[in-house]
Design a protein that fits this description.
single chain; alpha/beta; seven-stranded mixed sheet
Length: about 325
Amino acid sequence: MRLTIIASRHRHRHDAPENADLANGQEELGRIRDDVNRGVAHAGEIKAARVTDVSADGLDRGGMAMNSATNTVGVVRMPAVYLAHGAPPLLEDPIWPGELAEWGKRLPQPKAILVVSAHWESAPVTIGATTPVPLVYDFYGFPARYYETTYAPPGAPGLAERVRKLLSDVSPTAEEPTRGLDHGAYMPLLAMYPEADVPVLQISMPSEDPRVLMEIGRRLAPLRDEGVLIMGSGFLTHSFEAARLAAQGGPAVVRAVAEFDQWAAEALAHRDIDALLDYRHTAPALQYAHPRVDHFVPLFVALGASIEDGALADTQIEGFWLGNSKRSVQFA
C-alpha cells in the first residue's frame, strides 16, 4: 500500500499531485487511518502506563530500575522520545541544558538518531543530508552568535536506506541531500550529545494529521531494535503570546498553557490514545497553546513508534520556559 501524503502546511513543497492522484491519495489515507484505528484498538487492550519520575541514577521513585529490552541480536532496544527544543537561547538557560544532558546520560547509547522536527514540513517524507553539511538557522532576529553555532555529527546513509525501505509500502520518499539539521534537531542534541559522535539523520514531517504521523512512527518502529533513537522534536506548548508576556515580566505561566500541559500529562499517563488523536476537540485552550499545531504533532511519530509494544510514557523533563511547557517524554 502506498500513500500520497499531502501536507496541510509546509515550508518545502514537491510537485503537487493531479486531481486523480489526490483522489487516490485521499482513498489511501482513509485506508491508512483504518490501519491506525485497528492499532489503536489493540493498544487500548494494553494496561495504561503511568508517568514515572526518573532520578539521575536511572531509578524511579518506586525503586525499580529502568531496564531496556535487548533483542535477539544483542542490541539494546532504544526508546522513542518527544522533546521540547526551545529556541536558540536554550543553551544559556541555567537549568534546561542540564536536564537534557542528564536525560542523554540515562538513555542507552544510540547507534544513530532519527529526528522529525516541527521545523521541516515537506510532503512526501523527505530525507535530509546523509553527509555533514551546514546547519539550517531557521530563526530570525537573534544575536549574531546564534548563527555561528556548529554541530557536525556523522551522517547516516545506512539509516536513510532503512527509512526508505520501511516506508516503501506506505509513502514515497524524496531526497534533499543539502538540507542540514535545523534548530529543532541540533539544539537538544547539543546538550544531550555534545561530542557530536552519534550519526544523525533528519527527515521531514509530511503532514500534521496525527494518524498519518503515528502510522509513520509505527512503520519506523523496527529501527528501535537496531539501536536507533527516534526523536520527535517540538514544544508541548508553542504560544508566542505566552512567551511575550513572560519576557515582559508578566505571569510565568498563564492558565491556558498550564491547562494544556496538564491535559497532555494526564492523557499520556493514562495512555489515552483516543484523546490524544482527537486533541482538536479534547485539549483545552488549544488555540492559545498552539496557534499552529506543528510543534505538538511530532509527538505522534514517537507515539507511533511505541504503539504496538505498549511502551511506558515517562516524563523526563517538565516545567516552563518563556511561558511555555517544556514537558518532554520517553516511550520505553
